[in-house]
Design a protein that fits this description.
Helices cover 31% and strands 14% of the residues. It has a single domain, classed as Aldolase class I (TIM Barrel, Alpha-Beta Barrel), CATH 3.20.20. By secondary structure, it is of the alpha/beta class. Helix 3 (85-97) crosses helix 4, helix 5 (141-147) packs parallel to helix 7 and helix 8 (219-233) packs parallel to helix 9 (263-276). It has 9 helices and 10 strands. It has helices spanning 45-48, 71-74, 85-97, 112-124, 141-147, 163-170, 175-190, 219-233, 263-276; strands at 33-40, 53-58, 81-82, 103-106, 131-135, 153-156, 207-208, 210-213, 239-242, 281-283. A 7-stranded mixed beta sheet has the order 3-1-2-4-5-6-7, covered by helices on one side. Bound molecules: iron/sulfur cluster. The site of iron/sulfur cluster has 14 residues, from loops.
């Protein structure tokens, strides 16, 4: 099993010994930290279904985009609760008992050793629920190939096709090359989403769906991402084109990131996706996005999950 010593679990390759309490870019030691867990209704319908996706939000993140929508937990400002392997297992069993359609590991890359142990244990116990890898796309392809031996569903972001933008936002111009290589590994291992039911009546059980979040003032980056994905994977690649970016405290005074995308910007992005011919495309209304803008300082971070 991969360990947390000399950590190279993501492209940062910090090489720190997390078992000794050291922290790399992601901020995590070897002590598993969970920021939030519960049935979640904010994913695409093919994951949310009727009973919700069993979302497990980990603390920390190796990307460190300065506009991170989950900034409270990705920066460890809200550190979450520590769990050992048995506690993690009990949390997963509780979610399964609540009827969720999948176990949804959100920002999982820095925590792969714990997740691997959990998934192997659940499968050995006969659990058949799909495991969903809900990630930033900033991953090492050779690890993706290994993860695909246990994970059923991949839901990676594809944030930047522009290396300069990646450098400016997260401090690593290599994001596009890692994202495309790891996405190739995901598609090679699992194919596209199966079944692809945009109503959610029949939730997906395996395969890949890619997400892209439109950034304000950066439609050209979005178009480059769309063209890259189309050239590489074709028009049947399942794709979710998201409009839900909202400014956070760290984006104040950093235009254009200090505002939401405009309707015209999103329309231009959607037009580009349609012109390229993407068939399995989720688009998002601009108006109703704040229900799933989380506040991890609360026990129930998402207004949109209330009463479900
Ligand atoms: S998982 Fe964290 S410590 Fe490990 S290489 Fe990535 S950022 Fe560094």
């Amino acid at each position: 099993m991969l360990a947390y010593g000399d950590c190279h679990l993501c492209p940062r390759g910090c090489g720190v010994d997390r078992t000794a309490g050291r922290r790399g870019t992601c901020g995590g030691t070897a002590e598993l930290r969970i920021a939030s867990a519960g049935p979640h209704f904010g994913e695409e319908p093919c994951f949310t279904g009727t009973r919700g996706s069993g979302a497990i939000f980990f603390s920390g993140c190796s990307c460190h985009c300065f506009f991170c929508q989950n900034w409270q937990i990705s920066t460890f400002r809200t550190p979450g609760r520590a769990l050992d392997a048995d506690g993690f297992h009990a949390l997963a069993l509780d979610l399964i008992a609540r009827g969720v359609h999948n176990l949804n590991f959100v920002t999982p890359d820095p925590w792969w050793p714990h997740i691997e142990v959990l998934c192997r244990r659940l499968r050995a116990e006969g659990e058949t629920i799909p495991f969903l890898w809900n990630s930033s796309g900033y991953a090492r392809p050779e690890l993706v190939a290994r993860q695909a031996g246990l994970v059923d569903l991949f839901l990676p972001d594809f944030k930047f096709a522009d290396p300069d933008l990646a450098r400016a936002v997260m401090g690593d111009a290599r994001y596009p090359e890692y994202a495309i290589a790891s996405l190739r590994a995901m598609v090679a291992a699992k194919g596209f989403l199966d079944p692809f039911d945009p109503t959610g009546a029949e939730p997906a059980r395996s395969g890949v769906l890619v997400r892209h979040l439109l950034l304000p003032g950066h439609v050209e980056n979005t178009k480059r991402v769309l063209r890259l994905l189309h050239d590489e994977f074709g028009r049947y690649l399942p794709l979710s084109l998201m409009s839900q970016y909202l400014p956070i405290p760290a984006t104040a005074g950093r235009p254009p990131f200090d505002r939401a995308p405009t309707a015209d910007e999103y329309r231009e992005a959607v037009d580009c996706a349609l012109e390229l011919g993407f068939e399995n495309l989720f688009i998002q209304p601009l108006s109703d996005t704040s229900d799933f803008m989380p506040d991890f300082d609360r026990d129930a971070p998402f207004d949109g999950n209330r009463g479900r």
